[in-house]
Amino acid sequence: MKRLRFDDALRAAITQNLTRRVAAPLQARGLKRAAVCVILTDDGEGVASLVLTLRAKRLSTHSGQFALPGGRVDAGESAVDAALREAREEIGLELAPKAILGWLDDYPTRSGYVITPIVVWAPDDAAMSANPAEVAEIYRVRLAELNRPGSPEFVAIAESDQPVIRYPILGTLIHAPTAAVLYQFMEVAVHGRTTRVAHLEQPVWAWR
C-alpha cells in the first residue's frame, strides 16, 4: 500500500466509504458504554496517519497500554460527545462536530464495555499535547503501517473459538479492542470493504 496523502481526496473517499454502509450498533445488555476517537491526521510530512496513545502507568485500569483516545460515556452524553470530550481531555485536541466522518461498529470488550468508535478528521494545523494524568505519549501511525503484509495477525487460543487479533506496530503487539477498531477502519473506511469485527477476540489477560 502506497503512502496515502492527508488531503481532501482521502477525506472524501473515507467519508463515502463510511456513509454507504450501515454500522452495527450493539445493545448494552448490562455493559458500560464507552467511545473512542479514530483520528486521521498528518504525520508531519503530509502522510495520512492515525493517533494512538500510550496510557499513563498511574491509571488504575489498562495502564501502560496503547489505545485510541477515548473513555466511558458519562450520564447524559452521546457517544460522539464522549469521544470528542476524551480527545480534548487526553491529548488537548479540540474537534468540532463537523470533523466527524462517520462511525464504525460497536465492539464489546471482555472487561464489560461496549465501545463506539467515531472517525474524525483533525485540522491541518492540529496541535496535540499529552495530559500526563492519562497519557504518557502520543503517536501518529501511518496508514501504510497498518496495511503491511501479514498485518494484522490472527492467533488461535485454547480459551476461545474466535481468533485473537493483534497488530505488530510501534515495536510491540497491540491487541483488541484497539486492534479490532484499527482493522475495521482500514477494511471499511480505507478499502471500502464490508468487514465486521465484534467477534474478534482479546488476549486472556485482558479478560478483566
The CATH superfamily of one domain appears as: Nucleoside Triphosphate Pyrophosphohydrolase
CATH architecture of one domain: Alpha-Beta Complex
Q: What is the CATH topology classification name of one domain?
A: Nucleoside Triphosphate Pyrophosphohydrolase
Largest sheet report? 8 strands, mixed
Order of helices and strands: HEEEEHEEEEEEEH
Average per-residue pLDDT, rounded, comes to: 92
Low-confidence residue ranges: none
Question: How would you describe what is shown here?
Answer:
- The structure is a single chain.
- With 208 residues, the chain is of the alpha+beta class.
- The chain has a domain at 8-149: Alpha-Beta Complex (Nucleoside Triphosphate Pyrophosphohydrolase), CATH 3.90.79.
- The chain is 18% helix and 29% strand.
- The protein has 3 helices and 11 strands; from the N terminus they run H-E-E-E-E-H-E-E-E-E-E-E-E-H.
- It has helices at residues 8-19, 79-91, 178-190, and strands spanning 32-42, 48-55, 66-67, 70-72, 100-103, 107-108, 113-121, 135-142, 153-155, 164-169, 172-175.
- Strands 1, 2, 3, 4, 5, 6, 7 and 8 form an 8-stranded mixed sheet that branches.
- Strand 1 and strand 2 (48-55) form a beta hairpin.
- The chain is globular, with a radius of gyration of 16 Å.
- The mean pLDDT is 92.
